[in-house]
Structures are given as C-alpha cells and as structure tokens.
Design a protein that fits this description.
This protein has about 375 residues and is of the alpha+beta class. It has three domains: about 120 residues, Arc Repressor Mutant, subunit A (Orthogonal Bundle); about 130 residues, Rossmann fold, CATH 3.40.50.10610; about 100 residues. It has 13 helices and 14 strands. Helix 12 packs antiparallel against helix 13.
C-alpha cells in the first residue's frame, strides 16, 4: 500500500518514504510514527497511542517522543511555523491533516481522502479558556552551545523551573509534556499562549563554553507582548547540578513577585463589575500591604466579595482572617468583634485548601 500526499509517498510494504520518487532517509521509529499518523488521520492521536503503536507500550521519555515527532515533521518538510501536515492539538495530541491518496495495489484504483479543513482549523486554533488564576508555560530553553550533547543541561533547566513553579499553588503551570511539544519549532508566542491557554510564557537560552555557562531568561506577558522581567546568569560549572539548582531557585524567586505585580496591575485596570475572585484578591492584597486602617477596610470588603463569588477560594479566606486579626492588633477593630470573624474565615480556609500558605498565617493569627 502506498500513501501519497503532496510530493511525498509512503510505501508501507517497502518501508520507504519518497519525495518526487526520490527516497528520503528516515529512522525506523520515525517511519512507523509517520505511517501511524497518516493511517489514523481521521482522529487525534494521543501520546499513549503513539507509544503503544510505535514502541509497543515500552516506557519512552518525553524528549525521545518529541525528537521523533520533530524528525517526522522535518522528513516531510513540515517544520516551519505553519504546520500544514502534522498539526498539534493542544493537550490532546497530534493529527495528520493533509489530503491523502491511497493506492492499495495495482488492481485497485487510488482513493483520495480529504481532511475536514474547517473542523481541523477550528479544533487546532481554538483558544483554550484561560483559568481564573494566572497560567504560565515554560518553553524548552534553547541550547546555544553548538553541541547537541549539552541538550540535557538546557532541558534540565526548563524542567526544574517547571517543577519549582508548580509548587507555587496560586497559579497554574503547564506540564512539561505540553510545553515541550514546541521544542525545536519556531512558533509565535501568541499562538503558543492560545493553544496552551496561558497569559505568561517563560523562555530562555543556555550557552556553555568550557567551564563557564551563561543562561538568559525572559518572562513575557502575552496579552501586552512585553517583557515583564529578564535576567542573565553567568556561572562557573564546578558542580553541574549545584549550578542548575542555584539558577533555578534564582529564576523562580524572581518570577513569582513579577507575576504578582503584573496581575495586580491588570486587576487595577479592570472595571469593578468585571472582576473575578482572583482579581479581587489581587486588588485586596495591594491594599492590605499598604498597612493603613482605610486600606485594610477596603481589602476586607474586596475579600468578602471574592469569597462570595468563590466560597472554596482558600487564599481569599486566609487573607481575610489575617486582615481582621491584624486590624484588631493594630487597634483598628475591637478584638471581641474581630476574633470570631477571623476564626470563621480561618476555618473556611482550612476546609477550602489545607495546603495554602496563607492558611498557616491566618490560623496562627486567628486561633
């Protein structure tokens, strides 16, 4: 059986990929992956489907899978920004979207199948709904060393940042499997943000020369197209893992307050009647940290609105409890009046989210 699309042909029996009748060299796994995608072009193929078919269900690393997908795209000239043949369907998998002509054998006529373009375009380009809290994607850092053997180091930095950011419970971090799909592909940041449903994107590069390494990193606000923060780190590499840990900690420590500040600025620009629970908490915190009686009253009012919109929002309850307790200690509220309000808010925080960091502060202050 021969599968034809554009200038390319896949001879399944001979296990040969040809372009304009000229053989194109591909590795066996890449060939199997390409055949599987073309033969299953009527649906979205998941990562699990590919592993089961191409690798027989064996354990396969994400980097191996990504490299094979990129190799398949390169083999059929589909490695530019506009994926016209192998399309990534965000958080779902891949789908071959080209028109395919099937030649079963010499006695049967060719059969042409066209993809439903409207359906494909809509499914792949439809922006995912943004979560109600900030979402961030960390793209694979680019290896600028000119040595493919150093790829592990740049990938390791990206993976460590994803892991560290995931421990910060107040915003969403896109999983490695989703963000690493874009490794080695020139895709516009706005497209990535729409496909992954994020408002912030972290990107960077790693250049390793001898015993020195330079890492650059940028935090981008996709909505405005601006750099929220950027930094460069130069280090001597005596212990690779120690340097990796040190730089990861420095990057995450810088990113968290920058996203907080950007979200606070965004919330201030929103009309009051269009703010969600997250926006209200962001605005409340900006008043809370001013440490004045009037600002504390404003913060409490905003937090009350946030808990009314989302009763399961642990951070809103925790900050509200802390605010009342702090107000009482400052003499702005009567202790007898503030304590039961703070206790109710603290208990609500416990029920909503027992691991929220504001919970510890609110329970310690209120109880």
């Amino acid at each position: 059986m021969t599968l034809s699309f554009g200038d390319y042909e896949i001879d399944v029996e001979r296990r040969e990929l040809r372009r304009a009748k000229t053989p194109v060299h591909v590795e066996p796994q890449v060939f199997d992956l390409l055949v599987y995608l073309v033969q299953n072009r009527d649906r979205v193929v998941s990562k699990e489907d590919l592993i089961a078919s191409v690798w027989g269900g064996r354990i396969v690393s994400d980097s191996t899978l990504t490299s094979r997908i990129n190799a398949a795209r390169n083999a059929i000239g589909d490695s530019g920004e506009d994926k016209k043949l192998i399309r990534t369907i965000a958080r779902k998998g891949l789908r071959f979207v080209g028109a395919v002509s099937i030649q079963p054998n010499e006695d049967e006529p060719a059969k042409v199948t066209d993809p439903p373009p409207d359906e494909i375009q809509e499914q792949s380009r439809r922006a995912l709904p943004r979560p109600d809290r900030p979402a961030i994607a960390v793209l694979p850092f680019i290896n600028m060393s000119g040595d493919s053997e150093q790829e592990y180091f740049s990938d390791g930095i990206s993976e460590d940042i994803i892991t560290a950011l995931s421990k910060l419970r107040w915003f969403f971090v896109i999983a490695r499997n989703s963000s690493f799909i874009y490794k080695g592909n020139a895709v516009h940041m706005k497209q990535i943000a729409e496909e992954l449903g994020v408002g912030y994107v972290v990107e960077g590069s790693v250049r390793k020369v001898g015993d020195r390494v330079r890492i650059t990193v940028q935090l981008n606000d996709v909505a405005t197209g601006s750099h929220v923060w950027a930094e460069r780190y130069d280090r001597d590499i005596a212990d690779v893992f120690a340097v990796q840990d040190e730089i990861t900690e420095a990057i995450v420590a810088a990113i968290e307050p920058q996203v907080y500040a950007a979200e606070n600025f965004r919330a201030k620009r929103k009309p009051p009647d269009s703010m969600d629970a997250w926006d209200l908490v962001m605005r409340a915190l900006s008043h809370y940290w001013r440490v004045t009686r009037q600002d504390n009253v404003v913060a409490q009012a905003l937090l009350e609105k946030a808990t009314a919109i989302d009763p399961s929002y642990g951070q809103a309850h925790g900050v509200l409890a802390t605010s009342h307790t702090f107000s009482a200690h400052m003499g702005w509220e009567d202790m007898a009046t503030a304590t039961p309000v703070a206790e109710r808010a603290a208990l609500a925080a416990i029920l909503a989210d027992s691991e929220d960091p504001w919970l510890r502060l609110s329970v310690h202050a209120a109880l």
